[in-house]
Amino acid sequence: MACPFSHTASADLNPALLPLDWLLGTWESDEPGEGCFPTIKPFHYTEKLTFSHVGQPVINFTFNAFHAETKKPLHRECGFIRMQPGANRVAFIIAQNSGLVEIEEGELTAQQLNLQSQALARVSFAREPHVQKISRVIQLRPDGRLEQTVSMATDNQPLMQHLHITYRRQASCT
Question: What φ, ψ does residue 117 adopt, rounded to 5°?
Fold first, then answer.
């Protein structure tokens, strides 16, 4: 399968991204993930992640979440991942369908990303309470599954876990 967004299936991965090659491909949740937060009803969701490249020193990504029972689209994120040259520093540049735009930065340790929001912006008519902070951990588990945990703080709630889900690789992009 050719990589989404790739102008050619044979684009070489930029050497700056080699430490992140374990992310590349399409991942789908095989069990519903769990979402909770004090201001919302707990929910279950499925999600499809795609990480691809076109040979530039950046990874393109899309995250598409769906209601576990009705299959209706829920949350969407898209953006880019960059690595600081010569370091294990990583940045995610993210646009969400909710009107939130964020920059998360953190460190890559082996096959685990630990990210914290550095900047958040939102459309002027965003629903309250406003998100004030996001942290995200993405890791490749020993069983080959990808795991993601997202924590969030809002105007009236401290930082706490919001989402947790695991994925199985469906296709790889190199």
Answer: -65, 135
The angle at the Cα of 19, spanning 15 to 63, to the nearest 5 degrees, equals 105
Residue with tokens 């919001």: 162
* Cα–Cα separations (whole angstroms), residue 57 to 51, 52, 112, 126, 137: 13, 11, 19, 32, 22
φ/ψ (deg, to 5) at 94:
-130, 135
For residue 165, the Cα-to-chain-centroid distance in whole angstroms is: 11
To which H or E segment does residue 114 belong? strand 112-122
Residue-level pLDDT, tens digit, the chain, 174 residues: 334 444 445 799 999 999 999 999 999 998 999 999 999 999 999 999 999 999 999 999 999 999 999 999 999 999 999 999 999 999 999 999 999 999 999 999 999 999 999 999 999 999 999 999 999 999 999 999 999 999 999 999 999 999 999 999 998 875
Segment (H or E) for 53: none
CA distance 95 to 172: 24
Please state, in angstroms and as integers, the Cα–Cα distance from residue 116 to each residue in 44, 71, 91, 107, following that order: 24, 30, 9, 9
